[in-house]
Fold this sequence. Notes:
Blueprint: E1 5-11, E2 16-19, E3 25-34, E4 42-50, H1 51-60, E5 66-79, E6 85-98
Parallel strand pairs: 4-6
Antiparallel strand pairs: 1-3, 1-5, 2-3, 3-4, 5-6
Amino acid sequence: MLNRVILIGRLTHDPELRYTPNGTAVCRFTLAVNRRYNREQTDFIDVVAWRGLAENCANYLGKGRLAAVDGSLQVRTYETQDGQKRKVSEVVAEDIRFLDRAGTSGSEAKGSFQSQPKKDQWDELGTEISLDDIDFVDSTEDDEIPF
């Protein structure tokens, strides 16, 4: 048997972080996912994350942020205070990838996550260089290889 769900979409509201009575973190949010063949139609899918993943979502995700969710589908029933039975379908997240940086979706993420991109060693990859920038070493002597 297989129960695997992979979704990519944008959060419709800020994640809601709560704690169970025994102190376990649980985070809930809704993901808006466009249909594959009809981009005009959107599905709104409830997502639940637990423990450390829940706290990361609450700290670094916000309304409008793009995220990929990998998890399983859970269908549960419960009874309301007035005795009505309800059925809920939600994705229990096992892994969530943050696909954009804070500030790129028009809303800022909560917490200390900064939206300034970090310069890394690959930023200048593919830029053109001049031969004048290269130091050539005159190797007319018969030096030994240093290894």
